[in-house]
Amino acid sequence: MPIYGTTHADHLTTDIPCAPAMSDDMIAGNYEYQTGYQIINHFREAGLNHEEVQMILVGNHAPFTWGKDGKQAVYNAAVLEYVAELAFLSEGINPQIERLKASLIKKHYERKHGNNAYYGQQ
Questions:
Q1: How far is CA 86 from CA 3, 34, 83, in A?
Q2: Which of 10, 15, 37, 75 is catalytic?
Q3: Which terminal residue of the chain has fewer beta carbons within 10 Å of its beta carbon, N or C?
């Protein structure tokens, strides 16, 4: 899911990853294990760090989120759903919408999470 707006950039510096749908062999096997493998494999292929990106969509499945504890995982789930809603609405308003500028992504993320963070609740 492309990073279109500053709410997304407040939480991530990347697009929200979307893993492909699982193969029939994976579905027929140990389904829960294979779902986790699909997530790990997608992160590895995309060069993503699970500590920096704590959410993913898996094709034909529900979203997955995690964090340092259950409270953060639930927070990340709410962020993912809200950012998805904003992206959907943004694409409906402007089908040619472009990804947020790198400088604005950096500014929004670092003001909340950088070494000199100054914005929002810490």
A1: 10, 30, 5
A2: 10
A3: C
Question: Tens digits of per-residue pLDDT, 36-81?
Answer: 999 999 999 999 999 999 999 999 998 999 999 999 999 999 999 9
Catalytic-residue membership of 24 = no
For position 121, what pLDDT does the model report? Answer: 58
Record the pTM: 0.86
Active site residue 25: no
d(CA 57, CA 73): 14
Write down the catalytic residue from 31, 33, 82, 119.
119
Distance set, CA 6 to CA 13, 30, 55, 85, 107 (Å): 10, 39, 17, 14, 9
> What is the separation, in whole angstroms, between the first and last Cα of the chain?
26
